[in-house]
Amino acid sequence: MNGRMIRVVLPQHLRTLARVGGEVAVRVEGAVTQRSVLDALEACYPMLSGTIRDYGTRQRRPFLRFFACQEDLSFESADAALPEAVASGAEPLIILGAVAGG
Amino acid sequence: MSQVRVLVGTRKGAFILTSDGKREKWEVDGPHFAGWEIYHLKGSPVDPNRIYAAQSNSWFGQLVQRSDDGGKTWEAVGNKFAYDGVPGTHQWYDGTPHPWEFKRVWHLEPSLGDADTVYAGIEDAALFQSRDGGKNWRELSGLRGHGSGPHWQPGAGGMCLHTIILDPSDAGRMFIAISAAGAFRTDDGGKSWQPINRGLRSQHIPDPAAEVGHCVHHIAMHPSRPHVLFMQKHWDVMRSDNAGDSWQEVSGNLPTDFGFVIDVHAHEPETIYVVPIKSDAEHFVPDGKLRVFRSRSGGNEWEALTKGLPQENCYVNVLRDAMAVDAMDECGIYFGTSGGQVYASADAGDSWRAIVRDLPAVLSVEVQTLA
User: Fold this and answer.
1) Which helix (H) or strand (E) holds B37?
2) Alpha helices (runs of H) in chain A, residue ranges in sequence order
3) CA dist., res. A80 & res. A46, Å (int)
4) Is B252 left (phi over 0), alpha (psi -120 to 50) or beta?
5) How close is the nearest chain B Cα to the Cα of A13, in Å?
6) Residue B85 main-chain phi, psi, to 5 deg
7) Closest to B80 (Cβ–Cβ): which among A52, A55, A97?
8) What pLDDT, in 10s, does the model give residues B13-34?
9) Can you tell me the distance from the alpha carbon of B225 to that of B268, in angstroms, rounded to the nearest whole number?
10) What is the pLDDT confidence band of residue B204, given thresholds at 50, 70 and 90?
């Protein structure tokens, strides 16, 4: 089977929803971008659809951020290549929720 | 022996309370969906073990959960609520046009005849239907497409469709209510709608008797008399004896006629319940006393029910979907508070006790009477 296995770290609530522990790995064909990784993630875990990206606009939900390799990639284009360390599986794409509390 | 199951939605999860028909000892199961807002849960009257739940939060948006075993296990079903066609605009708080945007599901109403059919009332106000157990949703856009839609305006809590009442005697008839547009009725299964607000008067809108613009908080109906409706409006308790064609005020001797909940006794269609709240500026019970008011005459004459309820230093609110009744011979009444208590009366309101306390703030209470 072709494609690369991409590691993704989900926030706690989404791990519970998807019934997974720790990080997950999804197979991505072709270019490794935010869009292709999230498409693969939602294909593997359909219950996550609409929870990371808005259904209508396909934009990142406002209280979430995308981190990888100590960088905030949240405002990068959804079609920009993710860092090679993510594409190679050396580092995960981290989906992070805004902190809440006082 | 019969069993009673109470479905409680809170700011931080869902709880399921069960008791036998005596309603003395309660088991509390939860939290389900811990950390999420559960605006509403409701069971199917066709298959009581089929329960739908509206789960949401600010981070991850809306989910709909379904249980087929009475709430023991859950499955996330469809959460795509796409308006039909180009959504257009309604009015924003300042009166400017604002695009219709999906925010959350406020209320889920399972069909009276088919466990796979369920209706969802959403913010920004629209009515959706699923015919496959919640997997797919389609808008019944005749409501939002009613000519008055561009003039609807949100209440302080958002422009939410929060009340859905299905007529057990007429499969085509349905009532809904929107804050702050008012009440509407369809007689053709949701294709076309008419506002049913004649007789309402609201001082917060330019024309107090306008066709739309009223902040209806909740409506209740007894299934044996589907043409009689009871309404808790922002201010005023109202009743209609002609399926909403006209309304008259029945606030009578209530200490304040602001409030959110209203419900009807399971066996006495002229016995109704409200929980007066001090005002729209002070969302708590008046005088530090938690009192349910009961009218046995369909309104106007009310008695305070206080036995077992805190009568000093109490400053909780009771939200619009947070009261329900069971169908036991001696009707049980239930309500949940912003302080996290769920109070129950097993004697139609004469006496009360907390069947659970210190939950997160309660958003909704529904009751199932099980064989």
Assistant:
1) strand B37-43
2) 12-18, 34-44, 84-87
3) 24
4) left
5) 8
6) 75, -155
7) A55
8) 999 999 999 999 999 999 999 9
9) 10
10) confident
- Both tokens of B369, joined, read 């009477």
Architecture field, domain A4-85: Roll (3.10)
Q: How far is CA B121 from CA B99, B125, B126, B312, in A?
A: 18, 7, 6, 36
Any idea what DSSP says for residue B136?
S
Nearest chain A residue to B81 by CA distance is: A55
3-state SS assignment for residue B20: strand
**Interval B277-284 mean pLDDT:** 96
Q: How far apart are CA B10 and CA B40, in angstroms?
A: 8
Place of tokens 């284009």: A77
Instruction: Tell me what pLDDT residue B1 has.
Output: 62
- Span B131-186, pLDDT tens digits: 999 999 999 999 998 888 999 999 888 999 999 999 999 999 999 999 999 999 99
- Cβ contact (<8 Å) for B62 and A50? yes
Mark yes or no for CB contact A56/B35 under 8 Å: no
Inter-chain CB proximity A50 and B58 less than 8 Å: no
Q: Do B80 and A52 touch (CB under 8 A)?
A: no
B102 touches chain A (CB under 8 A): yes
Residue whose C-alpha is closest to residue B89's, from B132, B152, B160: B152
CA dist., res. B315 & res. B277, Å (int): 10
Q: What are chain B's domains?
A: 3-370 (2.130.10.10)
* Residues facing B304 on adjacent strands: B293
Lowest mean pLDDT among B97-101, B243-247, B347-351: B97-101
Whether the link from the prior residue into B31 is cis, omega within 30° of 0, is yes
Helix%, strand%, coil% for chain A, nearest 5: 25, 25, 50
Least confident stretch, B148-162, B263-277, B288-302:
B148-162
DSSP B7: E
> Other C-beta atoms within 10 Å of B169: how many?
10
Would you state the structure tokens that stand for residue B219, as one six-digit string?
């409506």
How much is the pLDDT for A99?
A: 83
Bridge partners of A95, per DSSP, are A66
Establish whether the linkage from the previous residue to B115 is cis, with ω within 30° of 0.
no
Q: What is the nearest CA distance from B8 to chain A, expressed in angstroms? A: 20
Q: Mean pLDDT, chain B, as a whole number?
A: 96
Q: pLDDT grade, residue A102 (50/70/90)?
A: low
The answer, for A13 touching chain B at a CB cutoff of 8 Å, is yes
Q: What secondary structure does DSSP assign to B323-336, as a single string?
A: EEE--SSS--EEEE
* CB contact residues (below 8 A), chain B span 21-80, against chain A: 35-36, 57-63, 76, 79-80
